[in-house]
Amino acid sequence: MTALHNSTQTKESDRQGRPLLEAKGLFKSYGKVEAVSGVDFSLAENSYVTLLGPSGCGKTSILRMIGGFEDVTSGALVLDNVRMDHIPAAKRPINTVFQNYALFPHLSVAENVAFGLSYQNVPKSEISKRALDALKTVRMDALADRRPRQLSGGQQQRVALARAIVNAPRLLLLDEPLSALDRRMRKDMQIELKELQRRLGMTFLHVTHDQEEAFALSDWIIVMHDGRIEQQGRPEEIYACPSTAYVADFIGGATCVFGEVVEREGDKVVIDTPIGRHLVPGVSTLSTGAPAALCLRPEQLTLAKAGIAAHVKSCVFRGSDWIIECEAADQVMQVVVGVNPPAQGALVHVHFDPDRAWVAAASRGDL
Ligand SMILES: Nc1ncnc2c1ncn2[C@@H]1O[C@H](COP(=O)(O)OP(=O)(O)OP(=O)(O)O)[C@@H](O)[C@H]1O
Ligand SMILES: [Mg+2]
User: Fold this and answer.
1) What confidence tens digit (pLDDT) does each residue in 193-238 have?
2) Is the shortest distance between the CB of 58 and ligand 1 below 6 Å?
3) Which candidate, 59, 90, 174, 264, has a CA 20 to 30 Å from the CA of 209?
């Protein structure tokens, strides 16, 4: 196995920090719909974790069970080694930031932030000081007297954040908190969120369907598919060593060439594919005869004098480079080219370093 693949292998037990929250065999059904089908994960204290997956895979359901807004169908939620699935939402040291901010329109920014504290026996003199401190944390103290409608989307999101951290929860849940913002604002807020989590030393669990956002923020990513966890790990590990073709495609859009394992050689496998037989590092559980996917990232492929013969299908200029789609044996591969892109229809040779590629598990249906 290459140094890259080696250095990115982590076990759950290697993670820093003890677990703040553990989900054990968590299920959620709504009548006949099974939204969450038995998930296990833990959130390390003082970490930024994202729950990543496409629409409908059960992300919000998991968040709502942790927040206490939805009953657990079966399984357990454990906070600091104590079962918490029967503790009412208001008694959990957990707050949620919603996608639509959910601010009170008739209250000022400061009143919005102070609102929750007035129900928690906090002395009146303390309330406004703590609300102001929370607003300073998100750089919104200067606008404390405005109403929500007098703020931009990004500013409203900061107020919602201040409101969620004002009573110092142990865990902050964020459900697609940046999806209403434009691209530029989203990037800025990603940096701010990460910085805020570090500074406060809280644990953040952030739901998103955007893999770039997950990479930008996370210490740990949980990739979901159809109510189940497909893979979890550090971002670099998930990118370099996806366990399945689904993860390889969903994270960073790898080209997956499907085939079959013909032999195992230590950490590597020999895979037979329509673009040839290759000896490549791969998932350790793959055995001879298993369906598998050769995962090739655009940046791992180059055009060379020799290699896999392919025809150029398209060539898209991206500013700093071109992305070329090449077809060989009915497989379409994307190659990044810095200068002199080939013409459409040209015959090229696609080269890759087998040690930098990866073989992930596939199912028979993929072949
Ligand atoms: N209250 C409900 N009643 C019935 N079905 C529900 C309910 N809430 C969610 N579902 C279903 O459960 C599944 C998971 O929904 P969930 O909202 O958890 O997905 P999600 O990953 O958050 O999706 P999105 O990215 O679109 O927000 C979906 O099939 C959804 O239709
Ligand atoms: Mg959702």
Assistant:
1) 999 999 999 999 999 999 999 999 999 999 999 999 999 999 999 9
2) yes
3) 90
